[in-house]
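With this grant's support, we have settled on a layout for protein records. One resulting record is reproduced below.
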Amino acid sequence: MVEAAHAAGRGLLRRFAQLPELAVQTKSGPTDLVSIADQEAEQTVRSMLAAAQPSYAFLGEEGGIAGGTDASQRWIVDPLDGTTNFLFGCPLWGVNVALARDGMVVAGVTYLPVMDELFVAEQGKGAWLNGRRIHVSARNSLIRSVLACGIPFADKPDHPVFAREMTLLSDRVAGIRRTGACAVDMAFVAAGRWDAYWERATNAWDIAPGVILVEEAGGIATSVTGDALDLERGNVCVSNGAIHTVLVDTLNAALYPEEPLA
């Protein structure tokens, strides 16, 4: 997984140097961008993983689900998380590679090529950044915490809910950040740089490595409503654990504006 992420990262850096000449297409909507860089990176990762474990199934953002005789083992790959950042010349983007066993993530790699930061986690073996053990932060109150989130853009739902979230949270925290790349934000929670991250419209390939990174770094991963995390449900909330309950309660309050926040 590490070798595949590094190989994809090298190819992406070459394409990054070719901006702004790189051809760009749209997928499901005018703001859902994709380029040859995404497609090449996914093919690189897929071919290397298939060579290592040919029986495992594969789920990639660009190619979707591909077969494998062992459907209980599945690679989950976002070859370029933060495509819009990438195409606009912003360095905050990365490669996501995860392995799920019976629907549970057991290993994950997030590689941020421009910063040359490699985040790795395996079930029961901790979380690591460039070979150094990492842990979530110890901050235990919202007022001392820096949060990150995914802001819904033009093709996404829940814009009114997000506006209420900001109203409820902005004067209760030390800061709120939006990098534009789920891979970056979840890795930063694992490393203690952010205290929490949430997003209401995600895909399995966006969040899979970050889930085990945060958990192995001592944090918590749930749905935005605080329920058990389902990779296919389309939302996530990860935190250092200490602020998780109060954050989830606040996010839930944004769904019901007629009810005052306790």
In short: The two ends are 45 Å apart (CA to CA). The longest strand covers residues 70-81. The mean pLDDT is 93.
